[in-house]
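Our preliminary data section would be incomplete without showing what the modeling component actually yields. Below, a chain of 490 amino acids is followed by its predicted structure, encoded as tokens that our downstream tools consume directly.
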Amino acid sequence: MKRGSIFSAIALAAAVTTGAVWQGKAADAAETAGQSVTATAPARISSGGRDSYADVVKVVTPGVVTIRTEGRASVSPTQFQDDDLLRRFFGDRFGNGQRRTPAPRSHGLGSGVVVSSDGYLLTNHHVIDNATDIRVEFADSRTFAAKLIGSDQPSDLALLKIEAANLRPLTLGDSDAVQVGDIVLAVGNPLGIGQTVTSGIVSAKGRSTGVGDGSYEDFLQTDAPINQGNSGGALVNTKGELIGINSQILSVSEGNIGIGFAIPANMASHVMDELRTEGRVRRAQLGVTVQPVTSDLAASLGLAETRGAIVSSVESGSAADRAGIKRGDVIVSFNGKPVSEFNALRNRVAETKPGTDAAVGIVRDGSDKTLTVKLDEVSANRSARGSSGSGPQADDKTALGVAVEPLTPEMAARAGVGRGVKGLLVENVDPNGRAADAGIQAGDVIVEANRKAVTSVDDLRTAARSTADKPLLLLVHRQGREMFVTVRPT
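Predicted structure:
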């Protein structure tokens, strides 16, 4: 964590072998001479004769768990990977002489929320990222092994499943109905000290921090104390309803200073349903780059009020391009709902089913227009990862453990890939995945799969499915040369 930055209320992870890993003076009313004062007993707020959230806590805490993980810590490549002498003795591993060093084990701590009586739990993606073993602990000391059903990095959410009885899931609340100033409670296991309940209010809505992937953010901000280890825990209202999943903190000291962020329950519910039924999250996209409309921009564009999101670029061939959206248009509504700012627009688009028609209201040259846009789908396989357990994605033998994107000229220039190379750019590699075992690295370009060109994620997935029980043959472009690589089946 960097000081003065946003910090994820992340799992307390440390590699075993390396050690890595808010004077006031009472405003008394003046008593005038001769005036008598009659003391009256204060009104009781709660039916139990006390001012307390204890009844809420009793309902909520059985559904909040501690999550402990074990996995591999990342290891930097050996500094001698290009040494000719070492290459001579140890061999040229995949063309660069890099020796494979076993990764040290790491342990992590976070929180989670039971969301169904049949054993499904929500937590943060960063709590279970790269975990090979996940265990769930209840306040009554019961412990269960958990299976990862799916993980979504853009929203920082993950869905787990345990085989257990007598579970008490939390009721999902309507996070859209939450108002700034509402009282909330945060429940989790901060710093590993055990299950803890803190209180505060909703400080703001619709926050975006830009941490991590930062793609789909609509945070509830709260001053209810959240610390490391609270990640994945519950943010509830005074009815005991789950309105958010605690995710991040803002701090200059890596500790709570009263600025925490939770993923809204409505977003979490959408992601959960997608992971449970599809194994991944399908999101729609317009194919535009937008920015906030400032007062100066509004004046320049002749807008009567400062609202909406201005389109700064349109991707060629995208849904927006096909519908006639142009640079300089101001998007003011999406499917009949006003667009107050660009982050809200992005989330509304993303939660719409790809392939559907959407009504986009724009202001162009001072005139209002409504365009119908058939939405595209965001490149798949970038945000979902399954495990070897049960569930729609968990038994998917085609999962390679890579995040890829179609190679564009701009991406090729940044990655140093020569002109004429087409395929999928490897952006990230799961160190525990099959692709890593085969030697695939971030920055590689997958040109072919099973001797057929691949230009989309679906192309790669189709090839992997067709050879789920035998090695997948990939043609990989790396540093100006191409080579064949075989990825073994699970």
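Confidence is low (pLDDT under 50) at residues 1-47, 74-101, 380-397. The chain has ten helices and 30 strands. Preliminary results of this kind motivate Aim 1 of the renewal.
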